[in-house]
Specification:
The complex is a heterodimer. Chain A is an all-alpha fold. In chain A, about 85% of the residues lie in helices and about 0% in strands. In chain A, helix 4 (about 115-140) runs antiparallel to helix 5 and helix 4 (about 115-140) runs parallel beside helix 7. In chain B, helix 3 (about 100-110) crosses helix 4, helix 3 (about 100-110) packs parallel to helix 6 and helix 4 (about 115-130) crosses helix 6 (about 150-160). Classes of the chains: A mainly alpha, B alpha/beta.
Chain lengths: ~220, ~250
């Protein structure tokens, strides 16, 4: 039994989970700040993003070193390739959290828009998707991962609905454009976070079962 | 399929070294056989040219068909079989003769005496292993003056001279350094366009680099046989994964 290599793989997993925790914290803080229209929080979220970027580089270097030194095969190889991809996806999520936080400044300056409940419903589902995608990785559970992937279409529909509502606002009251556009950007960023959570789930399925489900690859193969 | 085995069992006296081997080796591919020491991979390789016949107390059951001929049938011409199925060994075994005579040895055994024909065969065979350019002015030097890698190439050229179909290679790079190993691997890529290659190797990375199909053997059984890509990214059997990942074996 190559215990040393197994310990190193566990260490990679632990580091990725620490990064995922930072990403979740960053998204939660960005959405709370958006709700409270608290632009002071932007600098905190940028600071967390800086930590996330540092984690990304460290994890990537760790994976590259393990591949070079141990030349892994089978599920070990799939694990490290999957982690490299998830690492990249988590880092992108951190950027989306910063984008959401930066939109607060524009929203504060513009006129108030009353009904944006769809955004909060979307945010709730997106946060759940991120948390459960990370859980499916911790548990190496492809069934859970598959279930999360299926939620992505719900978020896509909610984004379209949110944009439709905000467009109606802009048509009826053109002075709301300055506020509605940042909200559209928030919806777009949330939808991208959901996409990236879906990517993580696809990687979990690849690691566990060596199945490539992205882009409907299995249907094309069949 | 160029080689097909059905339920091959091989015994050294009472010890069963190969158990129920069913295998199909395809033409113009490199097939790698991997497994821990003593698992029977070299024994299996020697089944394909009946080299085990030379060992006392060996008994074999089942069938081994090469080019639609059962090579263990009493009607099989052993000399023709060994011409068709050449073998390269772990250590280069150049004869203490000149480079020319090493390569001409096989054709001479087959009755070719015409000097012009022999020269053509020697040149073609040495060119086939990328040795002719560097050695064309030294053909009458001793083969033992060559480097290990050149001697291994020479041994392969000696096989090519009798125009085989299948090349069996038993750890052909284990006595070579990484640079020489890389050159022999490149040669194998070139050779597979014309020949079918079966290689036994302890070097997992070598199997991953060069083999199209890979068989994993353990305690005389063929545990798994599949495309190299499948074996090294998603092996079906836990024992295969355990071995290729270095967790046991």
């Amino acid at each position: 039994m190559d215990r040393h290599f197994d310990d190193e793989l566990q260490d990679v997993k632990k580091n990725l989970l620490q990064m995922a925790t930072l990403v979740e914290e960053s998204i939660t803080k960005a959405l709370d700040a958006l709700k409270k229209k608290d632009s002071d929080m932007v600098s905190t979220i940028r600071e967390i993003d800086h930590q996330i970027d540092t984690c990304e580089i460290a994890i990537e270097e760790q994976c590259i070193e393990l591949i070079a030194r141990h030349q892994p095969v089978g599920s070990d190889l799939r694990f490290l390739i999957g982690v490299i991809k998830m690492n990249n996806d988590l880092e992108r999520m951190g950027d989306h959290a910063v984008n959401i936080a930066e939109s607060i400044e524009y929203i504060i300056k513009g006129p108030h828009i009353k009904s944006i409940t769809n955004i909060w419903s979307m945010a709730k589902i997106v946060k759940q998707m991120l948390r459960k995608s990370v859980e499916s990785f911790i548990d190496n559970d492809p069934v859970k991962a598959q279930q999360i992937c299926e939620r992505d279409s719900i978020v896509d529909k909610m984004r379209t609905e949110t944009i439709r509502i905000l467009l109606t606002y802009m048509l009826e009251e053109p002075e709301t454009v300055g506020t509605a556009i940042p909200y559209i950007m928030v919806a777009k960023n949330l939808e991208r976070i959901a996409d990236l959570s879906t990517n993580i789930c696809e990687d979990v399925i690849y690691i566990a079962q060596a199945r490539v489900i992205k882009h409907h690859a299995e249907e094309h193969k069949a | 399929m160029i080689i097909r085995t059905s339920n091959v069992n091989l015994y050294y006296h009472t010890f069963q070294a190969l158990k129920h081997i069913d295998l199909a080796i395809k033409e113009n591919l490199i097939t790698g056989i991997i497994g821990p020491s003593g698992c029977g991979k070299s024994t299996l390789l020697r089944v394909f040219n009946r080299m085990n016949d030379l060992i006392d107390g060996v008994r074999i059951t089942g069938s081994v068909v090469i080019d639609d001929e059962d090579i263990y049938s009493p009607f099989c011409d052993l000399t023709m079989l060994r011409k068709k199925v050449g073998m390269v060994f772990q250590r280069p075994n150049a004869f203490p003769l000149s480079i020319f005579d090493n390569v001409a040895y096989g054709p001479r055994v087959w009755g070719i005496t015409d000097k012009k024909t022999l020269t053509e065969i020697v040149e073609r065979s040495l060119a086939g292993v990328d040795l002719f350019g560097g050695l064309k002015d030294k053909l009458h030097h001793s083969a033992l003056s060559l480097s290990s890698e050149q001697q291994q190439r020479l041994c392969i050229a000696r096989l090519l001279a009798v125009e085989p179909e299948i090349l069996l290679m038993d750890e052909p790079c284990s006595a070579l350094d990484p640079i020489a190993t890389g050159k022999i691997e490149e040669l194998m890529f070139d050779l597979k366009k014309t020949y079918t290659i079966v290689i036994v190797t302890h070097n997992m990375q070598q199997a991953a680099r060069i083999a199209d199909d890979v068989g994993f053997m353990l305690l005389g059984e063929l545990i798994e046989f599949d495309k190299a890509r499948k074996i090294f990214t998603n092996p079906a059997d836990e024992r295969t994964f355990g071995y290729i990942s270095g967790r046991f074996g």
